[in-house]
Amino acid sequence: MPTRTPAAFRAISYFAYAYKRTWRGSVATSFLYPVLYLTAMGLGLGTLVDHHAHQVDHVRYLVFLAPGLLASTAMQIGGNEATYPVMAAIKWLRTYFAMLASPLDVEDVLIGHLLWIGIRVLMVSVIYLGVMTAFGTVLSPLALLAVPAAVLTGLAFAAPICAFAATQENDTGFATLYRFVLVPLFLFSGTFFPVSQLPGWLQPVALATPLEHGVSLCRALVLGQVRPVTALADTVYLVAVAGAGFLAARVAYRRRLVT
Amino acid sequence: MTGVRPAGPVDPPGAEPMVLARGLTKRFGDFLAVDGLDFSIGRGESYGFLGPNGAGKTSTMRMIACMSPATSGTLRVLGMDPATEGPAIRGRIGLVPQEDTLDLELTVLDNLMIYGRYFDLPRKVIRERAERLLDFAQLTERAHDKVEPLSGGMKRRLTIARSLISEPDLLILDEPTTGLDPQARHLLWDRLYRLKSEGVTLVITTHYMDEAEQLCDRLAVMDHARFAAEGTPRELIDRWSTREVLELRFGPDRQEAAAGLLEGLAERTEVLPDRLLLYTNDGDAALTEAHRRGAVPVSALVRRSSLEDVFLRLTGRTLAD
Ligand SMILES: Nc1ncnc2c1ncn2[C@@H]1O[C@H](COP(=O)(O)OP(=O)(O)O)[C@@H](O)[C@H]1O
Ligand SMILES: [Mg+2]
Q1: What residue spans of chain A are helical by DSSP H?
Q2: Distance B90 CA to ligand 1 centre (A)
Q3: Residue pLDDT, tens place only, B34-71
Q4: What is the three-class DSSP state of B33?
Q5: Smallest CA–CA distance from A13 into chain B, residue
Q6: How far does the centroid of ligand 2 lie from the alpha carbon of residue A186, in Å?
Q7: Which of A100, B76, B103, B194 sits CB 3.0–4.6 Å from B20 for a disulfide?
Q8: Phi/psi of residue B136, each to 5°?
């Protein structure tokens, strides 16, 4: 008497089982990082910034910083989960091939993995928002919507990175990805200071990155300073990047997994 | 030969075969890995693909398992078309791939639970089946251990147990016993016999002659992407070899001279690096005649023909090459 679970959901069960093994450490880390960052950067550095600059974007530095870190963390989780785990599923553990021997199709495998990544970003974002609340950086009930915004940000990175990972023969490309893409984005996409502080020629570059839109959206929601047009543009941009990434990943997965 | 098992399909004539291939072909770029195979596998049959590495066995298995699209030709599995009904077909077959795809970090039981979920079986059903399958695979005691430290034979048995979680009608085993010690191989064979007696259709690849002889009702000898011959083990031996074989060892430098001396003595003579094989229906008579001609072998052995001889005849080399 088989039930009728959509095929992609069945793929999630693998990742959920595998997560059982590491969830304690993972949840603890999800609490620890925001506490460390908000304490060091927000309170420590923030005191200095507020003293000299009298607030950034009309709020205390800690309040400015926190939603940016939320979006950056979403990017980071999305990136982490779409690099080494994808390589493992293709080469090291060959999990994808176990799935493909069952009724699951390549598309189910990809969607299942992306959904799992979405769930991971969701878990981390909820915890992050909780810690932010404890630090008093949440100024509006709209902040609840920052959770789906963070998930979207995470997927806007995860989907294209899955596509990239599926083209790689080993993990050396991932170090390059972190060094030349994810770390610079973390530093220059409006998380730590407004993009307007960058040299003029760099500003359009920063504005073109998905992270900047994720930061902008999360910050507007958490601070309760939503300008509908900007928020809509940010959302559309992130959806477009995630969608294009998904299409690319579908091609890359097919090429790699169906030979 | 065991002589107990029925040879060939047990279906009534005209019934739909479990697997039907006509001109089945697989290319990787310009490389022809499978070249126009024709075969048909009946319900309850156990069918073997025997051939050296690179012959195209895995490529063929992956097409039957609907994991790899055929480049050309027709393929029907369980009466369906893999190109359009892959998920439905895969739902009814079990695959033991050449390389294990177990999750080494998870427990034995979790590997079964996860796999059962792929087939959308309710957890309760998976748990019941898992208990039986762990017993079948002699892994009950290891149910809650990680897979990583298990022996090769245990991992292989777990892979087989896992492939059975969906109670498939057709089980595809790609080199199920390669790399295992003899004891582990015999245990696996025993498990496969049991499946066969329960009516599961088996498709097996191997490069072990004894395995093919033990397990398969019918065999395809595969070499260079094609079938060199097909039939029951008995048929293959009758058709491609003699009743008996006289094996003579002379030592490396006397090999050629001896071959000259013994010319015409047997129906056919193979000169291997370490011995001469004389194919004849009466090995003892051939040995007497060899002695009469003045041959002084270091050792002499008369044995019955085996699939190894068939393979040598068909491909010009031993499987170990
Ligand atoms: N994905 C692939 N891409 C290119 N060549 C392949 C691929 N898979 C198999 N081959 C080649 O096809 C031939 C047959 O391989 P395979 O089917 O694995 O043979 P066997 O299982 O009999 O050892 C080999 O020469 C192998 O290198
Ligand atoms: Mg093979």
Answers
A1: 7-20, 23-37, 46-53, 61-82, 84-87, 95-100, 106-134, 146-165, 172-177, 183-188, 203-208, 210-223, 228-257
A2: 22
A3: 999 999 999 999 999 999 889 999 999 999 999 999 99
A4: strand
A5: B114
A6: 46
A7: B76
A8: -55, -40
Which residues in chain A come in under a pLDDT of 70? 1-3
Superfamily of domain B19-232: P-loop containing nucleotide triphosphate hydrolases (3.40.50.300)
Residue B3, pLDDT > 80, answer: no
**Which value, in Å, is the radius of gyration of the alpha carbons in chain B?**
22
Query: Does residue B5 contact residue B217 with C-beta atoms inside 8 Å?
Result: yes
End-to-end CA distance of chain B: 26
| Topology of the domain comprising B242-304 | Alpha-Beta Plaits (3.30.70)
Task: Please name the residue whose Cα sits nearest to atom 5 of ligand 1.
Answer: B28
Contact B278, B286 (CB under 8 A): yes
Pick the residue with more confidence: B320 or B185? Answer: B185
Residues A190, A191, A193, A198: what is their CA dihedral angle, to the nearest 10 degrees? Answer: -40
Using a CB–CB cutoff of 8 Å, tell me whether A103 touches chain B: yes
Per domain, the residue ranges of chain A are: 2-257
From CA B279, how far away is CA B276, in angstroms rounded? 10
Structural domain spans, chain B: 19-232, 242-304
Q: What is the pTM of this model?
A: 0.92
The ipTM assigned to this model is 0.92
Let me know how long chain B is: 321
Half-sphere exposure of B57 toward its Cβ, with a 13 Å CA cutoff? 27
pLDDT for A7-16, tens place per residue?
Answer: 999 999 999 9
